[in-house]
Amino acid sequence: MQNQKVASILNRVADYLEMDGPDFRTKAYRRAAHTIETLSVDIADIKKQGKLEELPGIGKHIHAKIEEILDTGSLEYLENLKKEFPLDLDALMSVEGLGPKKIKLLYQELGIKNLDDLEKEAKRHHIRRLKGMGAKTEAKILQNLEFARKSTGRQLLGEVLPLSSLIKQRISALDLVEQVEIAGSIRRRKETVGDIDVLTVTQHPDEVMDFFNRMDLVEEVIVKGHSKSTVRLFNGMDADIRVFKEDDFGSAMVYFTGSRELNISLRKIAISQGMKLNEYGVFHDEKRLAGKTEVDVFQALGMDYIPPELRENTGEIEAAQEGKLPLLVDYGDIKGDLHIHTNWSDGKSSIMEMALEASQRDYEYLAITDHTCIPVARGMDENRLIKQMGEIDRVNHELEDITLLKGAEVNLDSYGNLDMPRDLLEELDIVIAAVHSDLRQDPEKMNERILRALENDYVDILAHPTGRKLKERKPYQLNIENLFSKARETETILEINSQPKRLDLKDMHVKMAVEYGCQLSVSTDSHHTHDLSFMELGVATARRGWAEKKDIVNTFSLKKLLKLIS
DNA sequence: GCCGTTTTCGGCCCGACTGTTTTCAGTCG
Q: What is its main location (predicted)?
């Protein structure tokens, strides 16, 4: 799967072209990159089928460039641009306030190639001499440079959500504020988040922005205007607050929930129908047609309401226009968790504690699936597993509202065999198979290993199928198409693991799996009672993958579920 | 460089804010 690589090369070309802008070639490259980035199939397969030019935004020229990248692994056009401008573009672009134009000027006039050069020239006060720059720009560069060096980039949704909720809570406690919502990629529930967008309705913009800027979470105020303010928070993340009138709030929510590509498409649709769309409403000439609610805005544009998790411009607009959006699985549809650990292996809470917490969440069932054998996770041997089954029976007897299922997360050896004997597996209600060792195996062997696990009759669920960990570890090099067709053929359930770092399967893979007709589960892989709340992240991922209730097996009643996995 | 339910040529999303200007360019989202 080279989609990511092709997209990043095209994006890099766009970065260089932007130095000479305004140039619509830039937009063309970015659009093509976005198309490829959000493709759920392998771009190499599309090339093989000769269908590259059927993709939106890909014409004759970019088609040829994609072929070159796939054939040779690089793009001569980009290599020449790099020679012409031998810059550390990523680093320079990460300095707030520096864009392609200024970077080009800095290189041509002062020979600045990287952050060290930039710092040197700023300290010598050479930058303020350049056209369009001044003392303030120079000082800002120096200030932002330090931050660019430290910055870790996007943060995990699971880590940012609690912070954004706290901010929302604080703002909504103000009497002056009529409405507050978090928008942006947090509202879309994207797996990583770049900043926090807060939208408010108030008659007192200055007071509200002052309150926001003075929160103890704020390290520094970056921008302050009449309708928006940007601050840098203690954790290095930026947060924006924007103030609207009540009648504008729906269109503001649409616009600031994004994505960027979705906004561009929506505005084009407005134009094609003789209207104009911005964050203040949908307009025909001067007359406002909609703006108060999101539903009104989508309706004025001639389409159904699009749930935030789908707003990535990957086909949802067309579906909304045709009334064919999926009826997404809902956060309240989940009837149980099928992958949790207790203190019988590497979990921190007891079986009873986990059961009570699940019961609090109104679950109908909970599968106890501790590790087997692997030493690192205090995995259970056969005797302990038998003992644990007895304990589960005992707790089940004690609790009325919830049913505990006997399960195990069984380790797959390097060849895809389970590390538990058949007679024991037979006793379990549910068997999860997972890779926990020999992760750097040769890709071909890893593929065989996992396919072999799917063929095992005892395996009900494959846990965290691709093994990725966000910001930590790449996925195994799986042939994902083979995985999905084998899962469907063997009726093995694929897990959407809800751990903030995993979210595995990821959104795009969920979408693909749904198209393949695979069965999915959303589970938390909890190691503590607190972790059960990760379910929200997993369901969000399922929704981002267009999954419906029928695709997710733990929305089923206990009876229906047991029939499926028996 | 791409694209077409007014177009095969002439468009290409839109607004806020800042710093440098003195009417605007660059950046950001």
A: cytoplasm
